[in-house]
Design brief:
globular; 214 residues; eight-stranded parallel sheet; TIM Barrel; alpha/beta
């Protein structure tokens, strides 16, 4: 089971970028805001970078999800923005020594560090550093595009992670809505990233509350 309070983290990847500040303001009742940074290499899509993030005004913690092939080259620019969390992917930083270096770099910058795993990546691939990160992000879709179908098979990794690391924050991202959120929470996730299920409806406050109470 989860640690207690369920954090809801809307992903602005699903927001209307033509009215981005209004979209950010509309999810003020959430806990965090996720910024999906894509480079067109690690994932096929390209999203946004520091200039867009710098323009966002919010009191909510900013959660940067680096879906990029060179996270080591991108960390400092986001540390300079004083974001709350920076998460990089295990698939592009494959050695524990390099992962520890990036984790230390993030922590030294005063920011929390997370590591993400794609649906096909086993938990064992990151077990060497899970005691050193602040968050494990388990992708429940293939990263790169919003609106994908939730992959139920990843829930077993969440159960295993919660059992082995009872105090670790476990975030799930991809296909999270009022139908899949209860599965995530029951498996042990306590931070749910939601895109279309929040920004795809008019009443964002209700959407966030529905997820939190799922």
């Amino acid at each position: 089971m989860s640690l207690g309070k369920i954090l809801i983290t809307p992903s602005i990847l699903s927001a209307d970028f033509g009215h981005l500040q209004q979209e950010v303001d509309s999810v003020a009742s959430a806990d965090w805001i996720q910024l999906d940074v894509m480079d067109g290499h690690f994932v096929p899509n390209i999203s946004f970078g520091v200039p867009v993030v710098r323009g966002i005004k919010t009191k909510l913690p900013l959660d940067v999800h680096l879906m990029v092939s060179n996270p080591a080259d991108r960390i400092d620019e986001f540390l300079a923005l004083k974001v709350h969390q920076i998460t990089f992917h295990a698939e592009v930083v494959t050695g524990d020594a390099e992962r520890r270096r990036l984790i230390a770099q993030i922590h030294k910058g005063g920011t929390k560090a997370g590591i993400a795993i794609n649906p096909e990546t086993p938990l064992a691939a990151v077990s060497g550093v899970l005691s050193e990160v602040d968050l494990l992000l388990v992708m429940s879709v293939h990263p790169g595009f919003g609106g994908q179908k939730f992959i139920d098979a990843v829930l077993e990794k969440v159960r295993e992670a919660r059992q082995r690391y009872p105090d670790l924050m476990i975030q799930m991202d991809g296909g999270v809505d009022t139908e899949t959120a209860p599965k995530c929470i029951a498996a042990g996730a306590d931070n749910l990233v939601a895109g279309n299920s929040v920004f795809g409806v008019k009443d964002r406050k209700k959407a966030i509350q529905d997820l939190r109470c799922a």
